[in-house]
Specification:
CATH superfamily of the largest domain: Response regulator
Strand order of the largest sheet: 16-15-17-18-19-24-25
Number of domains: 4
Distance between the termini: 75 Å
Largest sheet: 7 strands, mixed
CATH class of the largest domain: Alpha Beta
Shape: elongated
Helix content: 25-40%
Number of strands: 25
Structural class: alpha/beta
CATH topology of the largest domain: Rossmann fold
CATH architecture of the largest domain: 3-Layer(aba) Sandwich
Length: 607
């Protein structure tokens, strides 16, 4: 707010009436200018300005309740001039911060100066039980997990209400002392350096870092699968995140705060293990949580439990039920962010890809029939109707939509059904590599001539090598991935240098970007424990990362997709379509960034 003594500042009172509430005091403590009527009624404010000249150059902000009960936002700024220090005091009519009531504002100030509930009750003249209720409401409105975090937030936002309780003093010196003392002390203490108390089937590891003096570190919690069908993906995620953490700490941290990475691994698809991991991170007072691609059967429970803690949670899972749950419950799940579109976007991308290939003459299909094998957990009848209408609009005949489980798919029966329909192209949605392998094997045995289009799984490093020639000619797409642009190339170079192998085109870069997105929000807010402010920063900021641009403007606080959500490619991830050619995946769409043209695959054979 205000600057030197020569700058005028006007405050707006209720009803639109304007008034100047300003006083300037010189080094001799003489009042040079001021609103006589206002400051006559509020003499302590003038005394504050006088005493501020002795404190030296500084800016101090707080709230003041006038003699007639009106709340003002006060700024006292002292600066050096040729005549010596000069203090300017500005008062602007205001409401209590964060929607607090007047009584809650008083109670918050008491908490910030270190008073206990009985002491606050004595100061406010009420029962201790009433104070406990006030504190509960304060924590909810501030989104603070503890009294210490609420105190830190009140001080960081200059939200103390003067005059302070007699316990702390009443003048400007007392406000400055509380602000100074609370700046870091009010933040929750960090957990021990070594931790062996992880959830039953998990471990906790920290990235090696150097301590930044004076400010408590930021604590980022992460949950990744330890084994099972998602382990290859999880390894890439962990490595990408580790590179980001090391980069940030090598630069001195985030606003002088070291970033501690608390990695928790969960075994298999156990719901209990996943919930225990969330509880474990909550117990360690983490400032945010990133979630790997855990089992679709259990992710909603983990996300809901994490939401009770209120810290930001970022994930890259694509199940539509997550974004719908967030959309339907914004008050509860408003801190949950999805960095990509849902898997329903794969269906529209499938039809769009076929149109591109046929329209450009790259593919001449034997017929216009399509089959879609969709994941049971991510599909409902409405999606089938939408896809059927979309296909028909573009001249395709969607003859079958068949839901399949995530694991244990009866592929011989499924492929036999596909062969009876004899489609030009088959869309198959599975995120488990072994399931995709079995599908491709059955299609080869059946000597199918259908073009196969799958999703996501080939982003995992070394997919083509593990598949051998089985994946040759395969089409696959992802709603988020690396573009091969300079930003992606720099990340990939760092990954190869750190780990001696390729990062793949998906998870490693995405989780690298997640860390940098959070770092940007923490840096902008400079209060990692202020979850509400960090969440607002994430919502309002466009981040350009190794896997493209992120803007959480989609339904259920997800990132936008190009071209499904917007034609502005600077705000959205491109739907990237690849084909395995010569044992390596090549981008064939969108045409603006295509690396190769489509190559019609040979008819499958037993060889």
């Amino acid at each position: 707010m205000g600057t030197g003594p020569g700058r005028r500042m006007r405050a707006v009172a209720g009803g639109g009436a304007e008034f100047q509430a300003r006083v300037v005091v010189d080094a001799g403590r003489r009042v040079l200018t001021g609103d006589a009527a206002f400051f006559t009624r509020n003499r302590p404010l003038v005394d504050h300005a006088r005493r501020a000249t002795a404190e030296g150059p500084a800016v101090l902000r707080y709230y003041w309740r006038s003699a007639d009960g009106v709340l003002f936002r006060v700024t006292v700024e002292t600066s050096d001039t040729e005549r010596g220090p000069v203090s300017g005091l500005h008062a602007e009519r205001s409401e209590p911060p964060w929607g607090l009531t007047s009584r809650e504002h008083e109670a918050l100030t008491c908490v910030a100066v270190g008073m206990t509930n009985p002491e606050i009750a004595g100061h406010l003249g009420c029962a201790a039980r009433t104070v406990a209720t006030h504190v509960e409401h304060i924590l909810a409105k501030l989104g603070a997990p503890s009294r210490a975090a609420a105190a830190a937030l009140a001080v960081a936002e200059d939200a103390l209400l003067a005059p302070l309780p007699r316990w702390a003093g009443s003048g400007i010196t007392a406000v400055a002392r509380v602000t100074r003392d609370q700046d870091d002390a009010a933040e929750p203490a960090p957990p021990p350096t070594t931790d062996r108390s992880g959830p039953p089937s998990g471990t906790v590891r920290r990235s090696p870092t150097t301590r930044s003096a004076g400010r408590r570190p930021i604590r980022l919690g992460a949950i990744y699968p330890l084994d099972g069908p998602r382990r290859f993906d999880a390894l890439a995620m962990r490595r990408g995140a580790a590179i980001a953490v090391d980069e940030l700490n090598a630069r001195g941290g985030i606003g002088g705060r070291r970033l501690d990475h608390l990695v928790t691994e969960v075994s298999g698809d156990s719901d209990a293990d996943l919930l225990a991991a969330v509880d474990h991170l909550r117990a360690h007072n983490v400032d945010a949580i990133t979630l790997g691609n855990v089992s679709p059967r259990h992710h909603l429970g983990a996300i809901t439990l994490a939401a009770e803690y209120r810290a930001p949670l970022i994930h890259s899972m694509v199940s539509p039920d997550i974004t719908e749950h967030v959309y339907d419950n914004p008050g509860v799940l408003g801190q949950t962010f999805q960095v990509c579109a849902t898997e329903t976007a794969y269906l529209s991308g499938f039809v769009r890809t076929l149109d591109l290939l046929t329209g450009s003459g790259q593919w001449n299909p034997p017929n216009r029939r399509l089959v879609a094998l969709v994941r049971e957990g991510g599909h409902d009848a409405g999606h089938g109707v939408v896809l059927d209408e979309l296909a028909a609009t573009h001249g395709w005949d969607l003859v079958t939509v068949l839901p399949i489980p995530d694991t244990g798919v009866p592929w011989p029966d499924v492929v036999a059904s596909v062969q009876r329909d004899d489609p030009a192209a088959v869309f198959v949605c599975t995120y488990v590599e072994e399931e995709l392998r079995r599908f491709l094997q059955e299609m080869r045995k059946a000597r199918s001539r259908s073009l196969v289009h799958t999703v996501w799984t080939p982003t995992i490093p070394h997919f083509e090598d593990r598949m051998g020639g089985l994946a040759e000619g395969l089409l696959w797409s992802t709603v988020i991935g690396t573009y091969g642009d300079p930003v992606s190339a720099r990340f990939m170079h760092r990954y190869r240098r750190a780990f001696g192998e390729e990062p793949g085109s998906g998870s490693a870069a995405i989780h690298y970007d997640m860390i940098h997105m959070l770092a940007g929000a923490w840096a902008a807010v400079d209060r990692p424990w202020d979850f509400g402010a960090v969440v607002r920063s994430l919502r309002e900021t466009v981040h350009r990362g190794a896997a493209g641009p992120y803007y959480f403007g989609g339904r259920g606080q997800r990132a936008l997709a190009y071209p499904d959500d917007t034609w502005d490619a600077s705000l959205a991830h491109a739907h990237l379509v690849h084909q395995v050619q010569g044992g390596r995946s090549q981008v064939i769409a969108p045409v603006e960034i295509a690396q190769r043209r489509f190559q019609p695959p040979a008819v499958a054979s037993d060889g």
